[in-house]
Write a structure and sequence with these properties.
Rossmann fold, 11 helices, nine-stranded mixed beta sheet, alpha/beta
Length: about 375
């Protein structure tokens, strides 16, 4: 009898679609086990993304799917665990020790709120249960130390590796920790790209024996030296484009997408920032920068519009104070939007191929 129930449950779960991955709940060994005894049915699921904010939804999906099955008088228990693994990146890029996946947050032009989005997305992934790092790759205008509310200088280990700074449960590295806040970086391209590589590979990301599930890289605007170095030498699992609905911003956002397309880095979607302005006095919402711009771009390139973030005074105030919206006001609609976007990105990433490069031996050919 138990085997019949297990078979019926398994067959039924094959038809359930995970809302984040848009694939079967049982795909990629997502169904770990089904256990049946006289009192209870226990279903164990495994997800490749952080689950802290998704457990209830997944459990309800399973319960609804199995409602028509005859389980007798048995209780139904749904257990969900997360298993975030390393996923494939562009060929030829050397893995970074201690980091499973790298997500680049990019924009075609400055002033669209990319850094604010980066900070909130990193914090949202952490809130959802992932181990998260932040690399501020904007050498000329680092803003993450201020946004994430952290100051000081990183410690150096005996092997000259730098310890990342830590706040809000995420590990952070930025050139802003190494120079005074008002010191301009008057560097040419080669120095900038070298600084990026040193911060990325010269940081002991897993100094506490905890690997980072997602390293969020806040890129500078444009398609210059930093972006080229990133695409050639850094194993980027995927990128996200941030834009405003404004036509001028969208022109440059399209260039950013084309850049990632040329270097074989998948783009998971578009975030429309400052989509509407919400009046702090009366709550009136108005599309002052235009409307549907990011939606049109997403449709043109077959991408997903991951979400729309309004232009609110509170977002700016919270970022300036070192406690971005996800931390300062987690119950607000805006914080929930950031969380939804972060989980969509993690879900899309989890559906990618596994990275097997670490399991391959190094082959060295020598003349004897």
């Amino acid at each position: 009898m138990s085997e019949q129930i297990i078979s019926a449950i398994t067959n039924q779960l094959h038809s359930v679609i995970d809302p984040l991955t848009q694939s079967k709940l049982t795909a990629n060994k997502g169904l770990v086990s089904v256990f049946v005894d006289e009192q209870k049915v226990t279903i164990n699921l495994s997800r490749g993304y952080p689950i802290k904010e998704s457990v209830s939804e997944l459990a309800n999906l399973v319960r609804a799917s199995l409602a028509a099955l005859d389980l007798g008088q048995r209780d139904l228990e749904v257990l969900v665990t997360q298993r975030i693994i390393s996923h494939s990146a562009q060929q030829g890029a050397q893995a970074v020790p201690g980091i499973k996946n790298i997500i680049a947050i990019a924009s075609g032009k400055g002033g669209v709120g990319k850094s604010t989005c980066s900070a909130n997305l990193a914090l949202a992934l952490s809130k959802a249960g992932a181990k998260v790092g932040m690399l501020d790759a904007d050498i000329y205008g680092p803003s993450q130390p201020r946004m994430l509310g952290i100051s000081g200088k990183p410690e150096a280990l005996e092997n000259k590796m730098l310890l990342p700074m830590v706040n809000h449960d995420i590990k952070i590295m930025s050139i802003g920790f190494l120079v005074e806040e008002d010191t301009p970086m008057i560097w040419r391209g080669p120095m900038v790209t070298q600084a990026l590589e040193q911060m990325l590979r010269g940081t002991a990301w897993s100094y506490d024996d905890q690997e980072i599930d997602y390293l969020v890289i806040d890129l500078p605007p444009g398609t210059g030296d930093i972006q080229l170095t990133l695409s050639q030498k850094v194993p980027v699992a995927g990128a996200v484009i941030v834009t405003t609905p404004q036509d001028i911003a969208l022109l440059d956002a399209r260039k950013a997408y084309k850049m990632f397309e040329k270097v074989d880095v998948p783009v998971y979607g578009v975030i429309e920032n400052m989509s509407t302005h919400i009046c702090s006095e009366c709550g009136h919402e108005e599309a002052i920068f235009g409307s549907q711009g990011a939606q049109k771009m997403a449709e043109d390139y077959g991408l997903e519009l991951l979400g729309q973030i309004p232009l609110e005074m509170a977002i700016r105030q919270q970022a300036d104070s070192g406690e971005p919206t996800v931390i300062a006001a987690p119950q607000t609609e805006t914080a929930k939007r950031y969380l939804s976007i972060a989980l969509k990105i993690a879900g899309k990433l989890s559906a990618k191929k596994k990275d097997f490069s670490a399991s391959f031996p190094n082959i060295v050919v020598e003349n004897s």
